[in-house]
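Dear colleagues,

As part of the handover before I leave the project, I'm documenting each prediction I ran so the next person doesn't have to rerun anything. This entry is a single chain, and its sequence is reproduced below.
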Amino acid sequence: MGELQVTATQNAEQMRFFMKCLLRDMEALEHMLRTGLIESDRRRIGAEQELFIVDRACRPALLAQELLETIDDPHFTPELALFNLECNLDPFDFGGACFAELEAQATELLALARRKARELNADVVMTGILPTLRQSDVDLDAITPQPRYFALNEVMTKLRGGTFHLHIKGVDECRIKHKSMLLEACNTSFQVHLQVTAEEFAKLYNISQLVAAPIMASAVNSPLLFGKRLWRETRLALFQQSIDTRNTDIPARSLMPRVSFGSKWVKSSVTEIFQEDISRFRALLGNEHYQDPFDALARGEAPTLDALRLHNGTVYRWNRACYGISSGKPHLRIENRLLPSGPSILDEVANAAFWLGLVHGYAAEHGDPQLSMDFDDAKSNLLAAARIGLDSQFKWIDGKRYAASELIVEQLLPLAEKGLASFGIEPDDITKYLGVIRNRVDHCRTGARWQVRSLVGMSDQSSSNQRLAALVQAMIRNQETGKPGHEWDLAQLEETSDWKDYYSTVESFMVSDIFTVHQDELVDLAAKMMEWSHIRHVPVEDDKHRLVGLVTHRKLLKFLLGGDSSSQVPVSEIMEPNPITIRRETPTLEAIKLMDANRISCLPILDELGRLVGIVTDNDFMGVARKLLQQKLSE
């Protein structure tokens, strides 16, 4: 977002002042476009590498500030959450060995971050969404303490009405409510920038929109959120919903989310994007210090357009238009925000080469896609790619439907090769980076598929936490080798370090798929549930999922031995009211002591509102103890 010293636009006067500045910036940009002041003799590329910081157990570590101080390198900057880090790579002229130079610098900076993180008993990892994240990790304690982040969270939370809703369906389903915009911090990406001239902006931007779907299908790397298997690139749904400020009480309104693909092709100018965003989205942040852009133009300088850039930083198009200044000259860029972080740096640079080559190759061969394809088809293609990756099918410019892999291999990779060659990219580098895409697609081994297949391979081993940690540990190990993701072996449980790191809290043991009854239901139902599912405890909850009691096997047996089996007895008559409960973050040893001291064999687990979220029993502890005993004896 550029400027750090910002505030929330809290009152009408502040809002009007910022809007005045914003409209003044637009006038200046339009003037620069009319008079040819936008740089047109350079073609540069750049990238932003986002990372997760993890502790010894591969869980999020809130160490960004300490790590930034230790690294002490201007390439690294903070992100929204204290478990994230951003690395801004240098711009490179598009041509020659630019991709090899990009890969070399990214590798060097990642090694620096990893080395310094390990000095703090932590590590860094590249992945679209960290598999070991939990909802409790994204509360306000994790926000980076900078004014712009507090201001942004404050105003977005206010607009949303205090609660952010998340609902994503894949193989599993994730449906949660959250009190802040920090869900956005669950995403990390490898954002690629392309500097373009004002005259060709519309065409190249439209092509970036068109090819977004096949690029995404080949690059998916975010299949997991809070342990649930969702979309192949869950980032798209998560990011949109995590900062969605739309009012859901007006279903008849066609309101656009702040995170979007857009609504139409760009006809002729970058100003169309800025005009639409200013018209649709109210200003969230302001800046009390403003420099009139026409003063800078009068001095023969490039204006900073701070208000425009600040507002643009709060509207998150997947392909975003950017204004910037390099060596004193103003320029325009297309920022591709679709690409996930990881699996490896080689994969990321290959994704960038595929996108950049395809944009230029398509432009030379087909021109502007607004003349050959409906915008909604491009939008639908991207949604399919995010949901199912290489298994998707796309409607293309000839009106036909193609399997994603077929379209990529037979049509798009050859176009990308021509596009890269036309800008003098080293032939060996074209072969190297596009070869990564070809092999990944031929073998159908995206990062997302590697993650899911690894988890399936460990499905009957240990706890969910340990399996997810093994996944992250395998990512770190493989990323250090530099090999592309399609060559990685599947993660193994042995990847994890000290097993104690993964069993410290009851969340490692708890069962969240619970059979429950209502207090007004028949005791007979509770008895049958125990018989059918081979369980000894059935929680009793009300209509709002708040725990009101517990039916135990012992209580049920006593009732059946002494009661009338033909009577219609409600559960409320035999349940234990007010059972002892715990929270998911309760230490495991504390839970075991609690069960021993009270001679109970289960503990329901509640959230902060008293709602049932899980249960842990002595059998759960025994199951893990059995596996650990087998492991120790075999050693």
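The chain is about 40% helix and 15% strand. The first strand starts at residue 7 and ends at 8.

All the best with the project,
I.
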